[in-house]
Amino acid sequence: MSDRVRHATPEPPADHPDEPLLRHLIGDALRRARRERGLTLREVAEASQVSLPYLSEIERGRKEPSSEVLAAVYRALDLRLADLLGDVTDRLSLISAPVDAPAARRVPSSAAPRALVLAA
Question: Looking at the UniProt record for this protein, which Gene Ontology cellular component terms does it annotate, in alphabetical order (predicted)?
Answer without folding.
Answer: cytosol
